[in-house]
Amino acid sequence: MSNQIPLSYPDITDAEIRAVTQTLRSGRLSIGPKLEEFEERVADRVGRMHGIGVNSGTSGLHLVLKALDIGPGDEVITPAFSFVASANCIEYVGAKPVFVDCDPRTLNINLEAVERAITDKTRAIVGVHVFGNPTGMAALAALATKHEISLVEDACEGLGGSINGEQIGTFGRAAVFGFYPNKQITTGEGGMIITDDDRLADLCRSMRNQGRPTPRQMPDEDDNPNDREMASWLTHERLGYNYRLNEMSAALGVEQMKRLDELLEARSMVASSYIRRLGAVPHLILPTIESNVNMSWFVFVARLNDQFTFDDRDEILRGLRRHDVGAGDYFPAIPMLPFYRQKYGYQPGDFPCAESVSHRTIALPFFTKLTEREVDLISQTLELMISRITFARD
């Protein structure tokens, strides 16, 4: 790392490097044993039957909605405050995303507003564990069951978290995890679909691999297995995609999964350091974590209170970066992004909570190797930038 404290940094050890190197030397670089092992490890950790590795969390969400046969004329409820992929996956299948505002405490989707948004066209809810917080997901699952619609967990930010002992990834018809370099574990790029539904799993496995049949779908014949494999490689039963997760990424994922508890604990300790250091800072709202939640910390996001404007927040971000502190603005309100505003005509004020939060978020550097000294330096710099804004007003 340079002298700058980055916003995120992956935790990679020699074990991961050796695993990737060994895979490269094996000559099996795609659709091999490492992918199967990675899928099994993630599924076993969550407690579900199937894991389907894909090249990104976004791809996983797309495949799940396709497997649920959601398409044009259908509506899918999704949070206004999330990463854009939560809505883009709905657009990919030709359905309409119906945005719902967030809860001001948890930043997850507002449950009362979800029920008001359900119509006879609603086919599914994409429920997001925002920043790794599962609060409200059980109630969202109950709501989906009540209305006989599918809940798809966008768990891309939540691997390893739980609420009341229930794992993130066990609430929906299917769940999708993401493994980008800033996540709890990383495969570089990659994602994982988790489900107990045999049919949905088979469809997702087929569609991730150009629509080829899976071994479970192949006829039980006495042909030479090699002949059958070659025949299936050129058999495309349905529209498919090239969403496969390669063996090198899977090998990295296997080693990261072996260290998951260690990585989660390290991230939790960094979050605790921030909370201790920033808890008494005026004008800041820190993450609210209920006592029954085992948080899976994806990022550490503090918020400015309502005395600060969007421009104030951006000035603070620029100040942090000038002082070599990586910082970000997680997340913009999705309906206010140009594509969604132009397509659906949303206007400022349509999603007041998501817009207010998105104008005031400050994502601080967050990764396992962040030291107490660095947390203190980051916190001092943030306090200085806030004080400059307030001094200029006075």
Can you walk me through this structure?
By secondary structure, this protein is of the alpha/beta class. The protein has helices at residues 14-26, 33-46, 57-67, 85-92, 111-117, 137-146, 198-208, 225-233, 247-258, 260-278, 310-322, 338-344, 352-358, 372-393; strands at residues 50-54, 75-79, 96-100, 122-128, 150-154, 162-163, 166-167, 174-178, 191-195, 284-285, 293-294, 300-304, 361-364. It has a 7-stranded mixed beta sheet, with helices on both faces. The protein contains 14 helices and 13 strands. The protein folds into 2 domains: 14-258, Type I PLP-dependent aspartate aminotransferase-like (Major domain) (Aspartate Aminotransferase, domain 2), CATH 3.40.640; 260-393, Aspartate Aminotransferase, domain 1 (Alpha-Beta Complex). The longest helix is centred in the C-terminal third of the chain and has 22 residues, at 372-393. The protein is globular. Strand 2 (75-79), helix 4 and strand 3 form a beta-alpha-beta unit.
